[in-house]
User: Fold this.
Amino acid sequence: MNILVCIKQVPDTETKVKIGEDGKSIDESDVNFVLNPYDEFAVEEALQLKEAAGGEVTVITVGPESATSAMRTALAMGADKGIRLDAEDVRLKDSFSIARALATSIEELDYDVIFCGKKAVDDDNHQVGPMLSALLDIPCVSTVTQLEIEGTSFTATREVEGGREIYEGEFPAVFTTDKGLNEPRYAALKGIMQAKKKPIDVSDVQFPEADSVVIESMEMPPESPPGRILGDSADAVPELIRLLKEEAKVL
Amino acid sequence: MAEGILVFAEQRNGQLMKAAKEVLTAGYQIAESSGTTVSTVVVGDGVSSITDDISQFGASTIYVADDGELANYSGLAYAEYIRAAIEQADPAVVLFPADSMGQDLAPVVAAKLGVGNGSDVTEIQYQDGTVTAKRPVYAGKSLVNITFQQSPAVLTVRPNTYPPEEHPGEASVENLDVSLPDNALRVTARFEVSESERPELTEANRIVSGGRGVGSPEDFEIIEKLADAMSAAVGASRAVTDAGWRPYSEQVGQTGKTVSPALYVACGISGAIQHLAGMRSSKVIVAINKDPDAPIFKVADYGITGDLFEVVPRMIEELKNES
Ligand SMILES: Cc1cc2nc3c(=O)[nH]c(=O)nc-3n(C[C@H](O)[C@H](O)[C@H](O)COP(=O)(O)OP(=O)(O)OC[C@H]3O[C@@H](n4cnc5c(N)ncnc54)[C@H](O)[C@@H]3O)c2cc1C
Assistant:
């Protein structure tokens, strides 16, 4: 089984956002970068599939040299090799450009299944997996929380408003992973040592001349005025309920 | 030249979704301010019956794909019909709700058209042929303004940002006829309805959330009772879902759901940056926490610095007395 996992390096979720000099992206000077949390589920699912069915796990990223560290995390978890499509400023690129870069590279590969995180926690776009499936003309099940695979058939479940959808289909397919699907493993020291020796192939990426969605500016959300402490016990409850009804008008 | 707005009118079991009504409203407002019109596309089995509902929201044309094979959602199949509607309507803007169906479908439609997608937008402007939008990034820690360089602009609209408004009118109905490619139905889905009577977290107008301060899965019952008294959905912090007290589907935050209800009540939640990221755009925030230094009070509109086991039961009682 040839299993591909698309990953992204992102600022960690503790990051206090400061707008950078370009006015369009964040100031990255004090930022700690990690493997996108949703991609950890994708890597874990790929590793479990490899353990069950055999084969090879390849992780692919579009990003600068520094994104190699996120890739090493995936390799330390147990992925076999990496492909980095070399590109600067990926945080300003729209998802369609990223999906096209990935699709162009993936078209050259033999693959049975592709995993992506459901979204990156920086741009929150929710797009790369579904777009990739459209470009490769294969089906996609997004935000998967349960996945069973038998040979090349799968049953995938995702939570939706008012219930759950259960999909049945055949590989090749793209799955985007949600929390709840699995418990990502930690990379053990041995894995970290081994990861250093695993191959990472670097190639140039051909982006289309223009993005179709462009970030013009970044701004901070409006500051909300400081709230009111109504009391330190249940005695404050009647006043709270009154304010919610009469002032805030939400009850 | 491309003109007008096309809205995907999401339905399930012949019911127009609340999120669809919101997006129809967004479409109507944009059309009004730019002097153009809204058309809609509805896809499913037996959906001809909901065209009346749709026409309450000001659409002039409704494209209908009604086919037994479309009873269950299938991204590839739905996308083909939506493309057919786009071909006929030639819109400048295509809107979907930013819910599980919209976020699965919009990127596929966009990529098939060879254009990008703006996700989860909270404001849209269409002026002099240019589409701009605002959207939260970093789970709402900041916002970006985006423009669309290609037509049509495909967007998903965040639930709860455009309250539904009715604009009854007459709409013409056009049936879509598409021959689906073989692979379009290769993934087939079934739908299982969840048993919960409570509103869906991302659609809810009110949410009551519990954190580690609630102490145990059993004690979560008081959170549920408060939610019921307020007709609210139940949410939780990650500490709670990680401990297995509540299902992950209830987690609010950067790696959980992003919510923006009219009222968010946080009980025994400290207000870690990742939690705030998912709920700070709620219109009114109430915090109940015994630690006066808890960061949740920095974003709360109203707070009580007390023991939730005293405060929450009192709230339930007050709400019951008054109704
Ligand atoms: C990558 C990553 C992603 C994350 N994503 C999320 C996310 O999506 N959502 C999320 O919520 N967190 C997320 N977190 C976790 C986050 O950092 C916090 O650990 C978590 O939000 C804490 O949950 P809590 O507030 O319920 O618990 P705690 O921080 O333990 O706070 C409990 C609070 O309850 C109060 N309390 C205790 N007893 C009572 C009582 N009887 N009455 C009143 N108050 C009481 C305490 O004063 C305290 O403030 C993430 C973390 C990481 C690293």
